[in-house]
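Field guide to reading this record: the first block holds the primary sequence, the second block holds the structure written as discrete tokens, and the final block holds curator observations. Each block starts with its own label. This record concerns histidine kinase, catalogued under organism Trebonia kvetii.

BLOCK 1 — SEQUENCE
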Amino acid sequence: MTNLHERLALAGPDDDVRELADMIDSLFARLDASLQAQRQFVANASHELRTPLARSRTLLEVALRDPGATPDSLRAACERAIAAGAEQERLIEALLILARGQRGLARREPLDLAAITRDVLAARGAEITARGLDVQVELSPALLAGDAALAERAVANLVDNAFLHNVPGGTVWVSVESDGGRAVLTVGNTGAEIGPDAVGRLLLPFQRGGPPGSSRTRSRSRSGGDDGLGLGLSIVAAIAAAHESGLSITPRLDGGGLTARLAFPPAPAITLITPVLVGGGRTDDECTVWPAGAGQTVHS
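BLOCK 2 — STRUCTURE
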């Protein structure tokens, strides 16, 4: 379809026909915007995929054409080419996760958001030390129903984003709580000041943060996250949508940085049917065990 930009723009009395025409125009507008975003995404993805390939090829061609190349220089060129290939692998993996999040959830399982967050932070202990960050953590049991791998990636990307886009020796705040039955993760940091108009763009694919007027950040989390690819927050947004969760990104008013809040919907109760032997026979005993047992850890 090539004429989605055209509209009926029906004039005349405000009747049922006019209302139907306006609805069709609104539908075309949304469809046109969706296709435009899809085309832009494909163009950006193609560019991002070509970049590490071109870098690897250039590195190897230059090394091979150098008549004075030594074993050490050839080894260094190969190592840089391997690093470029690894970057492409991370990008492909991130794109696959983004697509998986956009498809929705095939199944849900009981998870403890606090346990997931604790594991994510534990895996980044060396990075916290290397960056000299002050990470303040408050975790309370908070149950949700979701996909374990996607939930872990959402938490990891928010944490990695707070680490990566921070000031030297900065602070990161990470908290998990149950708010009205909703499992809520809040991550804040002391990064650069970002205007409210720029925050919305951070949720789009291939948008990289940084101080106003600076070049796009190409570094990445030492833990291998997606932020340096410009996909970190867009993946979180897709995972949030798949879980029917709320995601908000707001600038911190005191000292710069961002505060991200991911709120999963209240978890439904799960009824287990447990076979019980009564008088030599078999009966079924129903027992609702979750989320009533909110104090137990169901994911570790």
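BLOCK 3 — OBSERVATIONS
The chain has two domains: 16-103, 109-263.
Residues 16-103 form a domain with the Helix Hairpins fold (CATH 1.10.287.130).
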